[in-house]
Amino acid sequence: MSTSLSIRESIGKITADKIIALTILVSALGYFVDIFDLLLFSIVRVQSLKDIGIAPADLLAVGIRLLNTQMAGLLIGGFFWGVIGDKYGRVSVLMASILLYSIGNIANGFAQTIDQYAALRFITGLGLAGELGCGVTLASELLPKNLRGLGAAFISFIGILGAVLAYYIAHTLGWREAYIAGGIMGLILLALRARVKESGLYHAMEKQEARTKRGNMLLFFKKPELLRKYILVILMGAPIWAVVGIFITFSPEFAREFGMKTLPDAGLAVLFCYGLQAFAGLLISLISQKLRSRKKAILLSIVLLIITTGLFVTVRTDSLPVFYSLCAITGFGCAYWPMFVQVGAEQFGTNIRATAAVSIPNVVRGLVIPMTMGFRALIPSLGVAGSGVTVMGVMVVLALLSLWRLKETFHVDLDYIEGEV
Fold first, then answer.
1. What domains sit in the chain, N to C, each tagged with a CATH number?
2. pTM of the entire structure?
3. N or C of the chain: less Cβ packing under 10 Å?
């Protein structure tokens, strides 16, 4: 009898491990498609706007408008999908969000005017908002605490490689076909998602808590400590998108000011930055495991961000390989992105964890709107490089202060609920 029971327990454990592995893999593939779609605009910005009829002198202004429209969709979607994820489950968000951004991307391939382009980037951004935060939340609740960071790093590693594929598809097939391909990949992933299971922590909470107490955004305002942590995590991650949203997306404009005779391809700048970021993210996660600290690893990454961004604006060159190398090394400074999302999930109880973890990275992405507005406003007086450095400097100072005030979460158990005041 005991042997039979032991065999059944072993089979049950193997089955559970397979479900967890499948869930994390599908979450990683979801983020892969998310990054593919999210960065596709940065890759095809110049060519797509020229094809629609935008004059070269207006590429920066129109590009900022479309980028900000996409980020506005992500910002709104972050709150919407986060609440849905706590009220109705993490898997429901992963299914619905991927359907929305798949449809939006396919339609984007047929856009003929800037207004159509903008509307579809907003819709796509709205859908994209649900992927990363819910995927990391699900992985965090399924894995033991000593492996949570590695789970998030794996999701990020696979996901960030989506930028590499986006570049090659865009330059092989064309920008319209690339948008359609991204939508089709999303629909294929939707079929795989049918086998993903909800986390045990969510089911346990579901049995003991009324639905109205889950995904309650008012808790952040009723409990000042929750709001404080929420804001601190957001500010901690802001410099990452200052790098991506300003220095990499508008790298041709930086190169023009640097006096380069041949301007770089923004798509290649994205490719090199994210290609190195994928491996750097794994490395920083392993460092975190070794130090048994998220905060120390993030501090190291922010220091690298300061150094690499400084090199980007001070090493003036007319060599495209050297310039692309400078774009690549900025990926080291962005390496703490998966850990930043992980910390956002670990700071809050199960009943508002998805609300926090989904909305936080999208609020950071949404900060690209004021960052690019400030960047553009300062260009006449400071130039492109001076303006970019000023915006980045503000973000880095806020990030370091926020990291200092946040608690360490490496050893934190996630099986708890945030109560009412």
1. 10-196+215-405 (1.20.1250.20)
2. 0.79
3. N
